[in-house]
Design brief:
Length: 97
């Protein structure tokens, strides 16, 4: 399942399994080019849940103001770095016509 998803972006569930729904995954470079090809002006392509999400015990550290600021700083530093786009499970494309 993972091999085919990475190969063509088509995520299909095996028969009789209750995994995530069938879906299409954009490659980060393809998402931006699709927007520009249709006439949109891309303002930003941001990583959502990047390195901060990968950190150990992020949720439990959120209540500590100093640790929360460190988590947010990591997110700010990495959210717009093109070389890291594939690490985040979600991307946010901001564009205008």
């Amino acid at each position: 399942m993972m091999r085919s998803t990475l190969q063509d972006g088509q995520h299909r569930n095996p028969e009789n399994r209750s995994y995530f729904t069938a879906s299409f995954y954009h490659h980060p470079d393809e998402l931006e080019s699709e927007a520009t090809e249709t006439g949109w002006h891309v303002r930003a392509l941001l990583i959502i849940e990047g390195f901060a999400e990968l950190g150990p015990q992020t949720e439990s550290q959120w209540s500590d103001p100093a640790k929360r600021e460190a988590i947010l700083e990591i997110a700010r530093l990495s959210e717009s770095e093109p070389s890291l786009r594939g690490l985040g499970p979600h991307l946010l494309l901001i564009a205008e016509a």
